[in-house]
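Researcher: Next sequence.
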Amino acid sequence: MKRTAALLLAAFMLVGTLSSTAMAKPDYDPYYDVHPVRIVAYPAHAVGLLLEWAIYRPIHAFVNLPGVSTVVGERVEDGIDRELTAL
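Model: Next structure:
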């Protein structure tokens, strides 16, 4: 009985989650979505993400290694979030 109730609850939660994400799509706005800059921005954003994850983040991780950071002059600050200290 408990197992059936747990399965039903999980099924209802899954259906609720899927239906809420399907309804959360924004409406199509022809003025905004067909703007020439927006059309160029869609593939440019994908290329930017690809460059970030394939090139820049691995370089950043390599440069911040303890032995390498001293050679290249990168400061490694333990326990300090740079984004928060820049504010």
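Model: The longest helix spans residues 36-63. Helices lie at 2-23, 30-33, 36-63, 66-72, 82-86.
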